[in-house]
């Protein structure tokens, strides 16, 4: 699949890059093109998360940096401010590593101190920051926020320096100033100007309580809200499926049904992924062989997912993806594995074209290695890391 856009502006370009980044997230390998369904389930269960988020502290580091960036310290040029934000994020990463060289989840740790990442923490966390109401204007990009904030500061400065007659000051100036002063970009707990000093990856008590409260308020009805509200310890579960079995009779009926539907969908996709790896390795991949032996007697049962309900409840409209899923489900239900393999082959060819389709280049790959995803966890492990940070503040 090829993606393109007409580059009318830097804002349009950034929005297009954000979409591409989402399609290429670590852990989101999608050889069969089912990411639209997987991500819709994940957004339902764990809104505001992504597979490239690492630690909860970035829900504060990024806002602190962005808020500071428009206070005039970097001037008024948007591009210069954005460069300084990038430098500030890199500096914070160094500070985090200096505080603990073995700390996990510091973005850029593999390339620092000499290098830096192409996808900054602010890019990774921006959608989550907006989703949780930490940033108050959910339609703005970072560049648009910087531009709006700079204009706002310019207007406030102009009003303060302008000289009007007494009547004009009394009737107009105060009203205008009040409107400008009332613009609130951020909802954050109080923090000091020295927040960079002794910076660590751990949340403070105030940050933990605030983030917990914000997530619950902004994601009402989600599995994420239920987990935080009831302080569920996710380390007790090793998969999304195990969490589903533990909570199925405790969460509300709608959430329980969605979790079952997601697990049923995973069963179908996992069988297809096993077959994909058997095809790619010409039957030589030992892990895929072992998994297929485990699954083969239950393929009819494991293929029983209500795909109409999946697309209806997730409000998805993608005819080709649904047809692929229905076709592969039918082949499994009829135990026609040759047909199922052919459906997979055609699907990859349609998605990637003949030049990139792996199944047309099987000799180029190590037959001992698994290619593509395995079980769908719907960002369970990513959410678990963020939730653990909220629980384990210092």
Tag the structure with descriptive keywords.
single chain, mainly alpha, 17 helices
Give the amount of beta strand, in percent. under 5%
Instruction: Please describe the biggest sheet, giving its number of strands, its sense, and whether it closes into a barrel.
Output: none
Secondary-structure element sequence? HHHHHHHHHHHHHHHHH
Globally, the shape reads elongated
Please count the beta strands (DSSP E, at least 2 residues each): 0
Mean pLDDT: 89
Radius of gyration: 25 Å
Helices, by number, come to 17
Distance between the termini: 46 Å
Class based on secondary structure composition and strand pairing: mainly alpha
| Share of residues in helices | 55-70%
Would you identify the regions where 5 or more consecutive residues have pLDDT less than 50?
A: 1-8, 17-28
Report on this structure:
With 394 residues, this protein is mostly helical. Helices cover 58% and strands 0% of the residues. The chain has helices at 10-23, 35-45, 58-69, 78-99, 121-131, 142-161, 166-181, 205-218, 223-229, 240-247, 253-280, 286-295, 299-302, 307-313, 319-333, 337-352, 380-391. The two termini are 46 Å apart. Mean pLDDT is 89; it is low at 1-8 and 17-28.
Write the layout of secondary structure elements.
Elements: H1 10-23, H2 35-45, H3 58-69, H4 78-99, H5 121-131, H6 142-161, H7 166-181, H8 205-218, H9 223-229, H10 240-247, H11 253-280, H12 286-295, H13 299-302, H14 307-313, H15 319-333, H16 337-352, H17 380-391
Helix pairs in contact: 3-4, 3-5, 6-7, 8-9, 10-11, 11-12, 11-14, 11-16, 15-16
């Amino acid at each position: 699949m090829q993606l393109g856009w007409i580059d009318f502006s830097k804002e349009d370009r950034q929005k297009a890059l954000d979409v591409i980044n989402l399609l290429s997230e670590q852990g989101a390998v999608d050889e069969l093109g089912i990411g639209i369904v997987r991500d819709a389930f994940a957004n339902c269960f764990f809104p505001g998360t992504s597979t490239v988020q690492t630690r909860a502290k970035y829900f504060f580091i990024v806002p602190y940096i962005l808020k500071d960036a428009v206070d005039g310290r970097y001037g008024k040029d948007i591009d210069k401010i954005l460069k300084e934000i990038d430098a500030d994020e890199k500096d914070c990463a160094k500070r985090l590593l200096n505080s603990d060289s073995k700390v996990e989840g510091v973005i850029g740790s593999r390339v620092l101190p000499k290098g830096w990442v192409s996808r900054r923490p602010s890019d990774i966390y921006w959608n989550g920051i907006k989703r949780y109401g930490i940033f108050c204007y959910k339609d703005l990009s970072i560049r648009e926020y910087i531009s709006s904030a700079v204009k706002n500061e310019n207007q406030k400065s102009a009003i303060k320096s302008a000289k009007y007659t007494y009547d004009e000051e009394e009737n107009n100036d105060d009203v205008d100033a009040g409107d400008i002063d009332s613009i609130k970009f951020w909802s954050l707990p109080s923090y000091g100007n020295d927040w960079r000093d002794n910076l660590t990856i751990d949340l403070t008590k105030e940050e933990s309580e605030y983030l917990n409260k914000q997530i619950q308020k902004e994601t009402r009805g989600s599995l994420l809200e239920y987990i935080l509200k009831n302080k569920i310890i996710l380390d007790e579960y090793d998969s999304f499926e195990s969490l589903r079995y533990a909570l199925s009779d405790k969460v509300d009926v709608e959430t329980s049904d969605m979790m079952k539907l997601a697990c049923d969908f995973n069963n179908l996709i996992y069988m297809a992924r096993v077959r994909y790896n058997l095809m790619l390795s010409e039957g030589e991949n030992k892990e895929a062989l072992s998994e297929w032996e485990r699954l083969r007697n239950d393929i009819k049962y494991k293929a029983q997912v209500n795909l109409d309900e999946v697309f209806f409840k997730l409000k998805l409209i993608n005819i080709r993806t649904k047809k692929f899923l229905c076709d592969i489900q039918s082949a499994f239900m009829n135990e026609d594995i040759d047909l199922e393999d052919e459906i997979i082959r055609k699907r990859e060819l349609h998605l990637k074209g003949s030049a990139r389709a792996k199944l047309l280049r099987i000799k180029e790959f190590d037959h001992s290695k698994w290619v593509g995803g395995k079980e769908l966890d719907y960002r369970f492990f990513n959410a678990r890391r963020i939730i653990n940070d909220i629980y384990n503040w210092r």
